[in-house]
Amino acid sequence: MAHKSTPASDSRRVPTIEDVARLAGVSTATVSRSLNATGRVREATRKAVESAVRELGYTPNFGGQALALNRTNTVGAIIPTMENAIFARAIQALQETLAAQKVTLLVATSQYLPEREEEQIRALLARGVDGVVLIGNRRASSAYALLNARGVPFVLLWSAPDSSPFVTIGFDNSAAAIDVTTRILKKGHRRIGMISGLTAHNDRADDRVRGVSKALTDNGLELAPQDLVECRYSLAEGEAAAMQLLQRQPRPTAIICGNDVLAAGALRAARALGLVVPGDLSVVGFDDIELATAVFPPLATVRVPHRRMGVAAGEYLLRWIVDGKRPPSLTLPTEFIERASLGNLCDEAAD
Amino acid sequence: MAHKSTPASDSRRVPTIEDVARLAGVSTATVSRSLNATGRVREATRKAVESAVRELGYTPNFGGQALALNRTNTVGAIIPTMENAIFARAIQALQETLAAQKVTLLVATSQYLPEREEEQIRALLARGVDGVVLIGNRRASSAYALLNARGVPFVLLWSAPDSSPFVTIGFDNSAAAIDVTTRILKKGHRRIGMISGLTAHNDRADDRVRGVSKALTDNGLELAPQDLVECRYSLAEGEAAAMQLLQRQPRPTAIICGNDVLAAGALRAARALGLVVPGDLSVVGFDDIELATAVFPPLATVRVPHRRMGVAAGEYLLRWIVDGKRPPSLTLPTEFIERASLGNLCDEAAD
């Protein structure tokens, strides 16, 4: 038993699976089958067990759960941050998919710190999670070694499968960035700046920068060092980065942003400088989170398959946990969303 | 032992605390002291243990951690949602406070569903968390019974202490709403509408509605049923709710919103109707999340003590877990943030 044991709880006896079985009038095997929702329990029985569980305030302890199918019915996810809702929709979809099978999702946030993510992987494994969800595919081999040493199923979201030996459920960040850049070039823009999230330890940000750079090079242009500013994913840092790009003469007529939060910051910078979007400056984001249509003008951006990644991660893990068969990776499409923040190059702006 | 056990891991032996002790050349007691960061271990020893842990891919199992101070060094938090970042900053602050003591935070989201929250409390207790953080103070007694049965320290954020027999770290939602309403009345507004989150199972939303209603009544006005629209906390639902309020003749000159997301939706509705904010309509939010200054005009709103609640929750729980002494509740101040979305009543708007 590893539940918290304080003076308070030492003074009372913790209910066991036997207590639940006795109260529900069934066998302990039936109780654990019922609690693990393996579906071989009649509804009436399940109800009896559930009411006994509630009445006794029983919580399956590690031993108990471990006996039942070697499962704890929890999955752990580690995301870089909960701020600006980048990962919220995918995590929501993941949780709903797992909850439908009575599996609980526990989330930790690493603040984009590889060391913290590794501590959290260790902590989740120690809590006996049945599966793990991570964001991105670039991290120290020691992190993967931890997961493999336990044989715990894990999937990597937000990145392209082909760049990882592990099961990845995501999209091609570089291809999406190439597509965005090509569209901006088609609108006549030639002076293009970029605001990116910090690329260290962030393969998604890095791949987006590579994509923009490649598209420019393929069109006889270049993403010069001074055309690229890296900063944290915050409105204030996005605004400051845009200010820096817009101080240059001649200034860029379009700014590609690593996500919608940075783009919202760029809109604020444009407003502060008296620049009209898109007349004087076009701004494009990435992610298509709710913020993209909360700002004015609404942001042209890249819609990432948030919900589909979350649902697929849940379905893949649930199957993998049960049958032990490693699923193939999955690449999902992204979609460019045309909105008012992207316009054709105006002559004034081009001067 | 409750770690996941698949064919893969069955085929290898899982490293034990004894293996770590042997490789590090120390006692198992030293290993567990070191892993639990109780500070009675020399740095060199800690380093030796940590490298052994890494080399072996050892993850403390429940039994092992349970032996060590009866602690798993994990705290669980259940928040209603990760969308629109309402709770993100407090959770971030909570996590940083815990991480400084090598305690990992695991977060679950209940989607504002009481039954799901109760399942998640049960799941967190089953994973052996040392402490629990919940949002709000109105829930079924069965949920509190679960926590009390285990004697696990828990704190309630976002609500006023005086309305709960448990340890609450939050603020007075009703008083904050009274303050907002009074300020709007001082600006000359008399036709005031409100968009609230769903008040069922949400004491914060409910208290904010009560506050607005009380302030209006105290000033000889009333919040009539048709002046109040409840909806989910989303931009689209906030926009639709504002449309509904703004269809009425005469239309309100000010709309108080239950949070900033709803207020951003109201700004979008005003724009769609060709109404100028604040000239034709004043809009006030609640929370002061990043979105409040991403929109235009920036939102007058109530700044909630996000970070202070998170830090206090972490410090209170860490102390409580160690000394077993239940801390007192804490009420923190909120602050009204004056921004351009709130203006004086203009004659045209009053007509």
TrEMBL record, chains A, B:
PROSITE patterns: HTH_LACI_2 (PS50932). Gene3D superfamilies: 3.40.50.2300, lambda repressor-like DNA-binding domains. InterPro entries: HTH_LacI, LacI/GalR-like_sensor, Lambda_DNA-bd_dom_sf, Peripla_BP_I. SUPFAM superfamilies: lambda repressor-like DNA-binding domains, Periplasmic binding protein-like I. CDD domains: HTH_LacI, PBP1_LacI-like. The keyword Transcription regulation applies. The keyword Membrane does not apply. This is Transcriptional regulator, LacI family. Residues 15-69 form the HTH lacI-type domain. Keywords: DNA-binding, Transcription, Transcription regulation. It comes from Paracoccus seriniphilus. One of its GO terms (molecular function) is DNA-binding transcription factor activity.
